[in-house]
């Protein structure tokens, strides 16, 4: 093979330019009078000259919002058409549902969605919209669809994670997909987006489908390792005996599993002091012992994760985990499902 001939590059370039110009042309000179009048004012004076001013070019955000709104309207009407008929306009999936959940397959699960019907406010359906009003926690308050920030329309609509019917459906879907562990975004009670109020319900719904729950510990306001460990102790006291908690057999005990997001905010030596068996405040072989899985977000953290004595590392983003590996002692889980889940055996 080798480097393609420069003419091919030229052809591709000319084609791209032509395509771009065509696209711009279609948008700019759209015959749709609504679109034209929306973004463009044109006036012809008696002397024949045109006074053309572009009154307002919509921002990328606005275009995206319009596009999503249209998509939602279109999909909503399709769902409405499909409802009640045995032959919906959506094709049935072709895969065979799994008979049971497999605890080797983990998925990240967020129980932080809220909607106006159940919660009076909508949450997390419209993150990052600069035009949206925020509440005291800095969360977006709107209940309007205009701020929706999604690429896909949720099958259960803009649901509330507190809605038991919806959660039960999710767990049924996960079981059918063969997923055995949900890694639930977690902050201690009292911190924004803490799943505390739904945990009991989530644990039961999961367990009913043979699915286990692990915490995805997330950095919270003013967090320290001492505070976090205190909170995990409280968590284990309250939920530790629940059969829905995911545990792995280590050192002859079934230890709860904790994923930790951005652990190095707290320093790798601080982690080492609790995760190393010989650390000054080691939790190993205490009631707080667990399988701790640290996020590797950045190549620069390769050494940190080793120093900090995490049991396993994981990645939350699409990237090649293996490239980061520095020794066979380092293990790796990717979340896109292509890699095996490795857990250190000691
Ligand atoms: C045509 O008319 C407009 C509005 O009266 C004026 O601003 C413009 O200068 C005129 N153009 C020419 C070429 O006379
Ligand atoms: C041309 O249009 C702009 C915007 O509509 C307006 O502000 C301006 O006065 C117009 N110019 C003339 C000469 O009419
Ligand atoms: C149901 O869907 C199938 C496959 O798309 C189609 O061939 C059939 O005509 C549909 N039946 C009705 C009653 O719409
Ligand atoms: C819970 O979700 C179900 C299914 O989407 C819906 O029919 C029901 O109205 C919801 N309940 C509340 C209280 O919002
Ligand atoms: C956050 O932590 C700092 C330093 O430990 C402390 O001074 C401050 O009072 C804490 N803020 C709150 C709201 O707890
Ligand atoms: C998952 O990630 C690996 C490594 O980046 C990549 O080769 C593979 O195509 C990805 N699989 C999917 C399903 O995205």
Automatic annotation (TrEMBL):
GO terms for molecular function: alpha-mannosidase activity. This is Uncharacterized protein. It comes from Nesidiocoris tenuis. It is a single-pass type II membrane protein. Belongs to the glycosyl hydrolase 99 family. It comes from the Eukaryota. The chain crosses the membrane at residues 12-30. GO terms for cellular component: Golgi membrane. It is found in: Golgi apparatus membrane. Keywords: Golgi apparatus, Hydrolase, Membrane, Signal-anchor, Transmembrane, Transmembrane helix.
């Amino acid at each position: 093979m080798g480097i393609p001939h420069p003419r091919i590059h030229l052809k591709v370039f000319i084609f791209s330019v032509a395509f771009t110009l065509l696209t711009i042309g279609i948008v700019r000179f759209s015959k749709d009078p609504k679109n034209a009048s929306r973004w463009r004012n044109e006036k012809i004076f008696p002397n024949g000259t045109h006074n053309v001013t572009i009154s307002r070019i919509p921002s990328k955000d606005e275009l995206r919002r319009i596009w999503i709104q249209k998509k939602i309207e279109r999909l909503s009407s399709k769902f409405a058409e499909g409802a009640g008929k045995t032959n919906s306009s959506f094709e049935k999936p072709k895969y065979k549902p799994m008979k049971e959940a497999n605890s080797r397959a983990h998925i990240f699960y967020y129980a932080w969605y809220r909607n106006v019907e159940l919660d009076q406010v909508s949450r997390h359906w419209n993150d990052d919209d600069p035009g949206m009003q925020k509440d005291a926690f800095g969360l977006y308050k709107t209940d309007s669809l205009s701020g929706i920030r999604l690429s896909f329309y949720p099958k259960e609509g803009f649901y509330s994670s507190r809605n038991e019917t919806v959660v039960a459906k999710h767990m049924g879907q996960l079981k059918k997909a063969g997923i055995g562990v949900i890694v639930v975004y977690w902050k201690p009670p009292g911190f924004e987006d803490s799943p505390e109020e739904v945990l009991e319900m989530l644990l039961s719904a999961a367990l009913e489908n043979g699915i286990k729950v692990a915490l995805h510990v997330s950095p919270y306001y003013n967090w320290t390792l001492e505070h976090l460990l205190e909170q995990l102790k409280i968590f284990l006291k309250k939920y530790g005996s629940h059969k829905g908690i995911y545990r792995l057999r280590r050192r002859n005990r079934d230890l709860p599993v904790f994923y930790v997001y951005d652990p190095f905010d707290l320093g790798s030596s601080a982690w080492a002091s609790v995760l190393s068996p010989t650390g000054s405040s080691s939790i190993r072989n205490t009631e707080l012992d667990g399988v701790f899985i640290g996020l590797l977000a950045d190549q620069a953290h390769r050494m940190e994760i080793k120093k900090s004595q995490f049991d396993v590392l994981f990645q939350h983003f699409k990237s090649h985990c293996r490239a980061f590996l520095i020794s066979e002692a380092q293990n790796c889980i990717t979340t896109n499902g292509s890699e095996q889940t490795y857990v250190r055996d000691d």
